[in-house]
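Chain X:
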Amino acid sequence: MPLKFFRENLQYRNKHTAWQKAHDIHAPKVGDLAPDFELTDVTGVKTVRLSDFRGKRPVALIFGSFT
């Protein structure tokens, strides 16, 4: 492979590694409590808070489309 490819790849990796290091300080650590938030349930009527389930049962957060 040409040297240009390796040089560009290294520049790309260095740029994104620096970005990750700068933003990792904001990421939760293992064992941290998830921040509380509020959503409506699937019916769109009832408000549910994450803290309502703390210590009661596991919560799975699923992001994406089911269509």
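Chain Y:
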Amino acid sequence: MQRKRQPAEPYRIKSVEPIKLLTRKQREERIKQAAYNVFRLDATDIYIDLLTDSGTAAMSNRQWAALMMGDETYAGATSFRRFESVVKDLTRKNFVVPCHQGRSAENLFFSTILKKGDYVPNNTHFDTTRANTLHKGGIAVDFPCEASNTDEYVSFKGNMDVEALEQFIHEKGADKIPVIVMTVTNNSIGGQPVSMKNIKDVSALCKQHHIPFFFDCARFAENSYFIKRDEPGYADKSIRDIAHEMFEQCDGVMMSAKKDGLANIGGFIAVNDEDLYRRLTELLIIVEGFMTYGGLAGRDLEVLAVGLEEVLEFDYLDFRVEQVRYFGERIKEAGIPIVEPIGGHAVFADAGKFLSHIPAEQFPGQTLTVALYLEGGVRAVEIGSLMFGGEDPNTGEKLTARRELVRMAVPRRVYTNSHLDYVADAAARIAEAKDKLGGYKITRQAAFLRHFTCEMEQLAPSGIGVEMK
């Protein structure tokens, strides 16, 4: 099979940061000291870091220049006004609440609108969205429209199941549903996009039942790119125009701007409801900071204002999506099944299918995650029963993941294609020895977001380890 040419980076490298590969023995020591939890590893332990695309982007020369323009005035800073103007124009919303990151936005929002026992439907909640819903006494419910097989090639797998959602509204009653959230792109099922048609269908359903409709829009630009590429009628529209059309369908947004804001910190809530805005800012001032900085420095707001413009550039997005596509094809060629079609920000390995001899309760995704670190110094993250399992703190229900996945998130403008080839080579060596891999058990965990801090033990030694030369 002839491989499609790898894309060329649409930028020149102006500054470099050294990275170093530890020896196999050193990696074995580090991961054991970290209780087999890759979140507990130090940055210096890592060679290629694919843990997350959140806050890990390389800033552009324009962003570095903007940083020097930061106005650190406590109230009414000019940096906030620039940021506010960009967000208003992008989201088509009248009121902007700055936050230091996405989970802060979720905390503010759900603390303000949720009552115990309320339901929050989503196409698929991600970890912090689900945790913030549960923490406030809400019940997170997912309505994905995902195809049954992870390798089935269907466009817009991130869509929400509108028919199931409508039935749920009739069963529970709109008064028990203070908001319906759509995550774009749908991170938890493989970074899959949502179609404009699906967005409009959900929007119409929400209007019919007078339920506010919000986006979790951390990757809105990538979603807009997929609409332009794959949805009929949008090929000739600009990314900006598609984003505007998306945002006009919703009542408000929450964003971790550490993704498609191309920044290392920051987020926001944007709404049209002035009463909701006032309630949000009252809580913001108590827990984050004044309403014109929200826990951010002025220089961070300046960087975000530039990043939210740069992310709309087609050449950037075209390379971004193509680089991830190239990486996914290399991982698949290495012998590890992946979620297809390949999403915009990460490659998701199907660890449940790859390591079918390891049951879900022994976390096959964590097995593959640890193996990637041991074999190549590569840090990825489990998105399966370790992240989404456990016990619902409100109902006591045992929670399990629909898929046992491992996400290899590609930081924006950071790694070259050669780095990704290196990861694929390590994956190929793991695939050759997969039958020797064993599972893990949890020895200590927190009630919420346990994957960040839990401690684990091996149930069997990995049995692999070809040392890199």
